[in-house]
Design a protein that fits this description.
This protein is an alpha/beta fold. It contains five helices and six strands. Helices cover about 40% and strands about 15% of the residues. Helix 3 links the parallel strand 3 and strand 4.
Length: about 150
């Protein structure tokens, strides 16, 4: 399938996609701050530069976009029809990198929460409450997704 815009316009469109301070991330930040949790943003010294780090709780939070991190079974994680082999490779690499970084963080004693964009779109209340519960617990890893909100391992 041929792209409907030329390469220069597509490049400009793609460069406008934010990696930090996204709407889902801001929802999580506002909730946590209002609930009394204090955090550090985008620590460069930790693998994966977690969106939020809560040193007091020895926890990190990643707020993942369903498309960019290839959320399995999610309706928001569709594969583009233009250059599907390129996108499949790119998104699979993102998933593999996420898992490698999570393993390193857990090996260093960090607890990890992954909040998927769909859970904040469809079920923000239970997701945020579950995140608060996770932080106060001693659970090592939690994932918050709209279809299984909250999933704590």
């Amino acid at each position: 399938m041929v792209d409907i815009v030329d390469a220069a316009i597509r490049s400009k469109m793609m460069s406008g996609i934010k990696g930090k301070n996204t709407k889902p991330e801001l929802v999580v930040r506002r909730y946590l701050h209002r609930s009394g949790f204090r955090y550090v943003l985008h620590r460069r010294d930790l693998p994966g530069r977690p969106d939020l780090t809560l040193p007091k709780y020895r926890a990190v939070i990643f707020v993942h976009g369903c498309f960019w991190h290839m959320h399995q079974g999610c309706r928001f994680a569709t594969l583009p029809t233009t250059r599907p082999e390129f996108w499949l490779h790119k998104l699979e690499e993102n998933r593999a990198r996420d898992e490698r970084q999570a393993q390193v963080l857990m090996g260093d004693g960090w607890r990890i929460a992954v909040v998927w964009e769909c859970s904040l779109r469809l079920q923000p209340g239970p997701t945020l409450a579950g995140l608060s519960t996770f932080l106060k617990s001693c659970v090592r890893r939690a994932e918050f997704s709209a279809d299984q909100c909250p999933k704590i391992e």
